[in-house]
């Protein structure tokens, strides 16, 4: 088994959402796929990645989520009010008070995510010298996702949420996966600049890309070739799709799969818009 070593990296898992579209009273990250809760798949991926610490942001049914992982070597962060992804990272501030290094932000509802892909993201981030590196992918149908707007040099200019995108931007097929590598505390310095002046009235973590650039930092992007592993689960249909993808892969997609994503076709991801 390929294991990676990123001891200077802290992983922050966003797992506070209610998941209203699952039509269930069960917290979204506790829904099972292939015999494990969604969050269990993500934690297994991070264990293979070999990060120094794992923080998990919980909110909806937080005691139930915590109780489902009694032996997990994680630090729980409470987001009592779900006010967006940027707000979730703000809630982790006290736990990161003295931290200097790379903060890897991942979603708790991406059960097909591979450690090898996160390894490539962290390697790319370190080599680029960027304060933020966004993991993107290209979708056959990008509707509902934040679009990656690139500059003339091929770098990232901005992430534009679907609800705020122009018709020209909606035509872009490269989307934000909601997974990032940040320099910390460079991220902390711009979090206070987030506002809720957007269609959802939430603090979008995506806005930190522009804020970091305005502060003189570099932003980078890495495009994952296989969009299937970035499938975010928000509906029963998406959960069933993830089950089908997981079962059909030959060999099955292990959490420690090394190398670059294969680019094989599959069902289109269908998570929430990336700022949600």
Automatic annotation (TrEMBL):
GO terms for molecular function: glucosamine-1-phosphate N-acetyltransferase activity; UDP-N-acetylglucosamine diphosphorylase activity. The keyword Membrane does not apply. SUPFAM superfamilies: Nucleotide-diphospho-sugar transferases. Keywords: Acyltransferase, Nucleotidyltransferase, Transferase. Residues 245-276 are annotated as: Disordered. It catalyses: alpha-D-glucosamine 1-phosphate + acetyl-CoA = N-acetyl-alpha-D-glucosamine 1-phosphate + CoA + H(+); N-acetyl-alpha-D-glucosamine 1-phosphate + UTP + H(+) = UDP-N-acetyl-alpha-D-glucosamine + diphosphate. Residues 11-138 form the MobA-like NTP transferase domain. Residues 260-276 have a biased composition (Gly residues). It comes from the Bacteria. InterPro entries: GlmU-like (IPR050065), MobA-like_NTP_Trfase (IPR025877), Nucleotide-diphossugar_trans (IPR029044). Catalyzes the last two sequential reactions in the de novo biosynthetic pathway for UDP-N-acetylglucosamine (UDP-GlcNAc). The C-terminal domain catalyzes the transfer of acetyl group from acetyl coenzyme A to glucosamine-1-phosphate (GlcN-1-P) to produce N-acetylglucosamine-1-phosphate (GlcNAc-1-P), which is converted into UDP-GlcNAc by the transfer of uridine 5-monophosphate (from uridine 5-triphosphate), a reaction catalyzed by the N-terminal domain. PANTHER family: BIFUNCTIONAL PROTEIN GLMU, NUCLEOTIDYL TRANSFERASE. In the N-terminal section; belongs to the N-acetylglucosamine-1-phosphate uridyltransferase family. In the C-terminal section; belongs to the transferase hexapeptide repeat family. This is MobA-like NTP transferase domain-containing protein. It comes from Eiseniibacteriota bacterium.
């Amino acid at each position: 088994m390929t294991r990676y070593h990123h001891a200077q990296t802290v992983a922050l898992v966003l797992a506070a959402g209610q998941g209203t579209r699952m039509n269930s009273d069960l917290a979204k990250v506790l829904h099972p796929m292939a015999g494990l809760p969604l969050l269990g798949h993500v934690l297994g991926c991070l264990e293979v990645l070999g990060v120094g610490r794992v923080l998990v942001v919980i909110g909806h049914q937080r005691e139930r989520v915590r109780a489902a992982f009694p032996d997990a070597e994680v630090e729980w962060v409470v987001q009592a009010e779900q006010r967006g992804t940027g707000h979730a990272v703000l809630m982790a501030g006290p736990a990161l008070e003295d931290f200097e290094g790379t903060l890897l932000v991942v979603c708790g509802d991406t059960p097909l995510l591979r450690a090898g892909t996160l390894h490539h993201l962290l390697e790319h981030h370190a080599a680029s010298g960027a304060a933020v590196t966004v993991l993107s992918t290209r979708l056959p149908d990008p509707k509902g996702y934040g679009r990656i707007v690139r500059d003339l040099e091929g770098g990232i200019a901005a992430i534009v949420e679907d609800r705020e995108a122009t018709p020209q931007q909606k035509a872009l097929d490269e989307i934000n996966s909601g997974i990032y590598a940040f320099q910390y505390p460079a991220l902390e310095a711009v979090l206070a600049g987030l506002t809720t002046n957007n269609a959802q009235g939430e603090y979008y973590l995506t806005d930190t890309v522009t804020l970091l650039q305005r502060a003189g930092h570099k932003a980078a992007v890495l495009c994952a070739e296989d969009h299937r592993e970035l499938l975010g689960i928000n509906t029963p249909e998406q959960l069933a799709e993830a089950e089908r993808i997981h079962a059909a892969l030959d060999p099955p997609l292990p959490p420690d799969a090394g190398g670059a994503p294969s680019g094989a076709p599959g069902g289109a991801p269908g998570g929430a818009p990336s700022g949600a």
